[in-house]
Amino acid sequence: MKEDNNVKIRVSQLEKTFRNTGGETTQALVSVNLEVHEGEFVCLLGPSGCGKSTLLNIMAGFKRPSRGEVLIDGRRVTAPDPRYVTLFQNYGLFPWRNVLGNVEYGLEVQGVPKEGRRRVANQYISLVGLDKFIYNHPHELSGGMQQRVALARALAVDPEIIFMDEPLGALDAITRIRLQEEISRIWRNKEKTIVFVTHDIEEAVFLADRIVVMTPCPGRVKSTIPVPMGRPRHRTHPDFVRVRDQVYVELQLEEEEILDYHS
Ligand SMILES: Nc1ncnc2c1ncn2[C@@H]1O[C@H](COP(=O)(O)OP(=O)(O)OP(=O)(O)O)[C@@H](O)[C@H]1O
Ligand SMILES: [Mg+2]
Question: What is the pLDDT of residue 110?
């Protein structure tokens, strides 16, 4: 059952409290409300510890909320679902499989016959520019190339939603910019719904339709900033700089609030 107004993911009154081994509790998330529309690219942005990964993991079904709920297509999320893929920072590639084998993996799980699998895998490997490396194993690739393989593997199963948790965090600045461009291009061609965690302001402004600014102690959504710009985007364009500054101010205010909180 789909919701009327194109809402793909609805997060309502979400709370998550962790009980640490010492017995104290951490309020990782309090009263988070959020809607992600079908085909939308949403970035969750905020400082370390504000609950970005916790929120993403609950949305993707890997963690259960303490309160509230996440609905996808109007159905409550209780476990990971093969229609949605999650990309983690550490790529999650199988070291014993080559590039082709890694990208074919999800299709194998789906029961796609060998020939079809190979054709689709090759198509996505090509999309991320790794045709020359299909027989290489992950240890023979750079970090950026491994991230591309993970992206190809995620796309090959044609998911409705891609959840990404700081997928470019470990990369050097130039590779990171290249992959941001690639992700933006792929998103435009494939029209997926993407929820992307980052703490990099420029990355969020470059990629997102909307930026959800989160804040810690306790983790919550502070504001949502639309990015009313077409694509491809140019980092020096006045509109880009304006939105970047707007996000920056939002986060800077946050730091002052944290100082107040601790004084
Ligand atoms: N399994 C856990 N047990 C106890 N506390 C946890 C657990 N996971 C997360 N937390 C706490 O919840 C809060 C939010 O953590 P989370 O990992 O979601 O933050 P984050 O915004 O993703 O940070 P980062 O940018 O560093 O990845 C933190 O205070 C963290 O210590
Ligand atoms: Mg995190």
Answer: 87
- Residue positions counted in the chain: 263
Closest residue by Cα to atom 27, ligand 1, is 48
Atom number, ligand 1, closest to the C-alpha of residue 47: 25
Best of 52, 55, 89, 195 for a ligand 1 pocket test (most atoms within 8 Å of beta carbon): 52
Residues 62, 80: Cα–Cα separation, whole Å:
6
Q: Give me the sign of the Cα torsion angle 113, 114, 119, 120.
A: positive
- Ligand 1 binding residues, C-beta < 6 A: 18, 20, 26, 28, 46, 48-54, 199, 219
Q: Whose CA is nearest to atom 28 of ligand 1?
A: 49
Running along the chain, 263 residues long, what does each successive block of 10 average in pLDDT? 76 94 90 96 95 96 96 96 84 90 92 93 90 94 88 88 89 85 87 93 96 94 95 94 93 64 54
pTM: 0.90
Domain ranges of the chain: 1-83+165-234, 88-159
CA distance 183 to 99: 19
Quick check: helix, strand or coil at residue 227?
coil
What is the topology classification, in CATH, of domain 1-83+165-234?
Answer: Rossmann fold (3.40.50)
So what's the pLDDT on residue 178? 84
Q: Can you give the pLDDT at residue 72?
A: 97
